[in-house]
Amino acid sequence: MTLEGLLGSHKPFIPEIHDVRAHPGQKACAAHLRQILLGSELVETHVNCSKVQDPYSLRCMPQVHGAAREGMAFARRILEVEVNSATDNPLVFTETERIVSGGNFHGQPISLAMDVVAMALTQLSSISERRVEQLVNPSLSGLPAFLAKNSGLNSGFMIAQVTSAALVAESRVLSHPASVDSIPSSAGREDHVSMGMTAALKGRQVSDFTRSCLAIEVLCAAQALDFRLPVKPGKGALAAYELVRSKVPHMDRDRELHKDIEAVSNLIDSGALLPAVKSATA
Q1: Residue 149, Cβ neighbours under 10 Å: how many?
Q2: If you average pLDDT over every residue of the chain, what do you get?
Q3: How far apart are CA 224 and CA 132, in angstroms?
């Protein structure tokens, strides 16, 4: 939606680019973008534009989103092993009639995985915030300042971008890894600990922040597409736009944005966006 609202190029997502740097996450993201953008009318309006390249936040979506995707896949794999494992101490092996003290309780795998979650999601929210800046900045977007029709009287999405920037800043602080830290306890018997709970709490907080950042981008992108009508974006982007507009109307003048952010956050949480896009691009 953002790419279409900013009249970005589709060329950075062609298969050849991603076949020569074949990270699975990158290839998957590029393929999804190609599918979502199929049938775009907007791309035809700027075939002969003077721009040489789009900013990284648009052009490098497969590379950045793909890296985050792979980080999350790593964490999921670790967690799936963990929830199907025995982590008690001591462990009782009935077949051999042995009771053995070991170290399966140690949370290092989880600690590292949750640190990766925080870092992967922070990069996702960080690049999202940069796209929001592209959308609200008239010198970059060619759209009304802060996506407001009367920017002298209305702030539009100015504070939404500030909110996103603040959430990204806090997420960066929370991305400092807990898994490399250790505070010995129990008279030196527990001399290397994982700090896994700290990593998990940070990961959950960053996840909440990232949801809000993505919701802000979705709102800004929908507003940008309003200004591009009646020319339509790709079928997948159009399906997402229409679903958002069924919950949140166009902003003609300033209103309480937290309600709009919450409405789109709920859409993200519900998973409703994905099937809407899939059905439009099947």
Answers
A1: 15
A2: 96
A3: 10
